[in-house]
Specification:
It contains five helices and six strands; from the N terminus they run H-H-H-H-E-E-E-E-E-H-E. The chain has about 140 residues and is α+β, with helices and mostly antiparallel strands. Helix 1 runs antiparallel to helix 3 and helix 3 runs antiparallel to helix 4. The radius of gyration is 16 Å and the shape is globular.
């Protein structure tokens, strides 16, 4: 489990989960940004969150994409149970995507991304949302 002290982006990610990703309506995130920024005690964090929020709003206001509900699932590989939990799902240019984000860390090494890709593909083989394409 990630510590709140170490997860710099937890506040903005949770706000996105509760607004845009849950309602599929960008205006809910736009409405929540002011409150999110007011909660930030550190000026640099407030400034970074504001830049990130404005870039997010600008990007999504220009996209032809619809969010999808993507439930978590558990798979088993060699007797080891593994949870598959994408942050969000979306339909973009006709493709259904399951998206895994890396906001609180450097982009993982190639072999790690390949392992995550494999686990998401294995989840599809085991019956989880066969219509989804994993995106890392």
């Amino acid at each position: 489990m990630t510590s709140t002290l170490r997860d710099y982006y937890l506040g903005i990610r949770n706000t996105l989960r509760q607004t845009h990703w849950a309602t599929h309506d960008l205006s809910t995130f736009e409405d929540a940004v002011e409150h999110l920024l007011a909660q930030q005690e550190t000026p640099s964090k407030r400034e970074n969150y504001e830049k990130l929020a404005m870039a997010y709003i600008d990007y999504w206001s220009r996209q032809d994409a619809v969010f999808l509900d993507v439930e978590s699932t558990r798979i088993e590989i060699a007797g080891l149970p593994i949870s598959i939990t994408p942050e969000l799902g979306m339909r973009h240019h006709g493709d259904n995507l399951a998206v895994k984000l890396w906001l609180n860390a450097y982009q993982p090494k190639r072999t790690f991304r390949q392992a995550v890709q494999y686990m998401m593909e294995e989840a599809k083989r085991q019956g989880w949302r066969t219509d989804l394409q994993p995106v890392l």
